[in-house]
Recover the amino acids of this structure.
């Protein structure tokens, strides 16, 4: 075996060893994830059983049956539970950007916008092409907008900015985390996408980072 063939053989051996090490690491990681999930499920089951045992003991101590278990709840807890059932659930994941959610957001934003039928009819009568077609020569030309309308738009944008500042909490910056955003709004959007899809793409990301995948056979 010549020196070139020997060098090639050594490189092939290193490649096989690294591929085997990657596959072993991935199998070990999958086992750790499975074991951690089982431990978490066991802790939740234990907590639920303890809570159920305390509830049964309280019912027995107060000589109540299961139908009157609501008597064990405090007024504050019952009110909180009622409000939780009445509250409309917030959209999660991809549902935050579907047509229905966007339309409801538009309705909330335009709830305080005043609309004048007389002004609308006047604009329709005076504009040469109020309903423009795709081949209109005025396509892209903005109509004249009054100063009061511009002021109303600015006021609405300022109100949205103020409301967003009241309800948003600035997250602590993590220097060790990968930067996958260009500004705060993009970072917030990425967090929404991560909550919706990270559970389904975690294995794909890990395989891409390692440069290998678990063989089917």
């Amino acid at each position: 075996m010549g020196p070139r063939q020997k060098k090639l053989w050594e490189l092939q051996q290193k490649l096989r060893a690294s591929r085997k090490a990657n596959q072993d690491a991935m199998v070990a990681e999958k086992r750790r994830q499975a074991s951690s999930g089982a431990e978490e499920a066991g802790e939740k089951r234990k907590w639920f059983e303890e809570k159920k045992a305390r509830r049964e003991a309280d019912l027995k101590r107060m000589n109540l049956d299961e139908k009157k278990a609501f008597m064990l709840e405090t007024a504050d807890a019952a009110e909180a539970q009622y409000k939780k059932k009445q509250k409309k659930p917030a959209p999660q994941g991809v549902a935050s950007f579907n047509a229905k959610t966007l339309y409801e957001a538009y309705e909330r934003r335009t709830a305080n916008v005043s609309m004048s039928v007389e002004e609308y009819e006047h604009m329709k009568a005076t504009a040469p092409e109020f309903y423009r077609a795709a081949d209109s020569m005025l396509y892209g030309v903005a109509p004249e907008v009054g100063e009061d309308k511009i002021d109303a738009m600015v006021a609405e944008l300022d109100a949205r900015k103020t409301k967003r500042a009241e309800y948003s909490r600035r997250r602590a910056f993590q220097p060790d985390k990968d930067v996958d955003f260009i500004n705060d709004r993009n970072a917030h959007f990425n967090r929404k996408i991560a909550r919706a899809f990270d559970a389904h793409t975690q294995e794909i990301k890990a395989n891409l980072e390692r440069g290998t995948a678990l063989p089917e056979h």
